[in-house]
Amino acid sequence: MLEQATRERTVGFITAGLGLVAGLAWNDAIRSLIDYLFPLDKNGLTAKFIYAVAITFVVVILSQYLVRWMKKDTGTSA
Predict the structure, then answer these.
(1) How many distinct structural domains can be found in the chain?
(2) What pTM was estimated for this model as a whole?
């Protein structure tokens, strides 16, 4: 039982690490897209706020989806 819990945690940590790598890749891609769409000032405040709002929106939606998915798997009501 302890061995199974250790495996599950290890897989969770590895998955989180891979998710971080993928997130960093998307970070660069989205920044490049914003630089392309708003070429006036690549380090402009407006572009940074648009980027922050877009990322926050995506994270909130994904978080809500994951919470509902976890509740569905555990059998509790969402």
Answers:
(1) 1
(2) 0.52
